[in-house]
Amino acid sequence: MAAAWATLVSQIVIVGTGGAVRLTGSGLGCTTWPNCEPESFVPVPEQGIHGVIEFTNRVWGAVVVAIAVVMLVMAIRRRAGRTIAWLAGLVLGLSIAQALIGAVVVWMELRPDTVGVHFFLSVILVALSAVLVWKVVVGPSGPRVAPRWQSALVHAMTLALVVVVVVGVLTTGSGPHAGDGGAARNGLDPAVMQHVHAWPGYALLALTVAVVAVAWRRGPRLHLRWSLALLGVILVQVVVGIVQSRLGLPIMLVGIHMVLSVVSAAIGAAVVLSLRPPQPTDARAAREDATAAVRA
C-alpha cells in the first residue's frame, strides 16, 4: 500500500518540480542530457540557480522511476494480482518514456509541442497511479450499481476534463512562461487562448455539479464523496485561473494551477472507479467459507 501511495505522490510532485523548471526559466539550465553539461553530469557554477533547479528535477525523475520499480517488484512478489501488476508495469514503462521525452525537450530547445507532450504524459501517469492506488487500497471493482445514464454523465465529465487539460497545454504554450527566454512559442494569441481555455473549464464545472447532484440523490456514497472532492478542486482551479489571469500570470499561481490540474485527473479517476464500489471483504470471505463448508 505504501509503495502505491508513493507512486502517486511522486508523480504529482514531479509535476511541481517540472513546473518550477519552466516557471523560473530553468528549462535549459542543463544544456544536454543525460549529462547536465557535455563535460559534467552535475551542474557547474556558471549555470547558477537555473542549473540546480533543472538538475533537481532530473534527480527527482530518477526517484520516480525507482519508486515505480519497487512498486512493480512488490506487486509481482506479493502476487497482488494481474491488474495491479499490469498497472505497475505500465506506470514504470511510461515513467521511463517520460524521462526520454524530457531529453527530447532539452535537445529540441523547449519546443512547445514537445513540452506539451511531456506535461500531458504526466497527467496520464498521475491518473494511472491513482487507479493503481485504488486497486491496491479499495480492491477489485464490484458489479455496476449505477444506471447507464449516470455512467454516461460521469464519462462526459471526464471527457470535458481531458479537453480542459489539452486546451490548457495549448494556452500555456502561447504564454510567457516558456522555460527559457529564447524558447519558441506556438504562435497562438495568449489573450484569446485564455478565453478558449475557460469555456471547457466552465463546461467541466457544470458537468461536475450535475454529477454531484445525481450522486447526492442516487449514490453510491463513495461516489458522492469523490465527486464532492473533485468539485472542490475544480472550484479552486477556477478561482486560481481567474486570479492568475488578472494578475498577469505570476509564477506561484501558475505552478499551483499546474499541480491542481493533475490532482483533478487523479480525483477524476477515483470518481469513475467509485461508480462500481467493491464488494465488502466480509461478504466475500463469508461466501468463500460457505463454499468451503459445502465442499467439505
Short description:
The protein is an all-alpha fold and 296 residues long. 76% of the residues lie in helices and 0% in strands. The chain has two domains: 1-137, no CATH class; 142-296, no CATH class.
Residue-averaged pLDDT: 88
Largest sheet features? none
Count of spatially separate domains: 2
| Global structural class | mainly alpha
Number of helices: 9
Contiguous uncertain segments of 5+ residues: 282-296
Strand content: under 5%
Helicity level, as a percent range? over 70%
First-last Cα distance = 35 Å
Global morphology: flat
Radius of gyration: 21 Å
Tally of DSSP β-strands: 0
What are the secondary-structure elements, in order, as H or E? HHHHHHHHH
Keywords: Cell membrane, Disulfide bond, Heme biosynthesis, Iron, Membrane, Metal-binding, Oxidoreductase, Transmembrane, Transmembrane helix
InterPro entries: COX15/CtaA_fam, COX15/CtaA_HemeA_synthase
Subcellular location: Membrane
GO cellular component, one term: membrane
Explain this structure to me?
The protein contains nine helices and no strands. Helix 1 packs antiparallel against helix 8, helix 4 runs antiparallel to helix 5 and helix 7 packs antiparallel against helix 8. The chain folds into two domains: 137 residues, no CATH class; 155 residues, no CATH class. The chain is 76% helix and 0% strand. The chain starts with a helix and ends with a helix. The longest helix is centred in the first third of the chain and has 30 residues. With 296 residues, the chain is an all-alpha fold.
